[in-house]
């Protein structure tokens, strides 16, 4: 979240936007959310993921293949 605690500064993404950003299917993103690997907020019947959480997940997922 924003360092000042102001939620209005946080950018929320839909599952489809996260899938597009990560170049994976929406089902993969839903699986990450339901497994607790990717934090999400439930809004009605849909989920929203913060852009920061997506970036953090991708940073944690990098590994050295060399």
Automatic annotation (TrEMBL):
Any one Gene Ontology molecular-function term assigned to this protein's record: DNA binding
Domain Helix-turn-helix: 12-60
Coiled coil: none
SUPFAM superfamilies: Putative DNA-binding domain (SSF46955)
Protein name as it appears in the record: Helix-turn-helix domain-containing protein
Species the sequence originates in: Nocardioides donggukensis
Source lineage: Bacteria, Bacillati, Actinomycetota, Actinomycetes, Propionibacteriales
């Amino acid at each position: 979240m924003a360092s000042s605690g102001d939620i209005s500064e946080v950018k929320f993404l839909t599952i489809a936007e996260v899938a597009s950003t990560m170049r994976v299917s929406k089902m993969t993103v839903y699986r990450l959310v339901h497994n607790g690997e990717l934090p999400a907020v439930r809004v009605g019947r849909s989920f929203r993921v913060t852009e920061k959480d997506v970036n953090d997940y991708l940073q944690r997922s990098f590994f050295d293949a060399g």
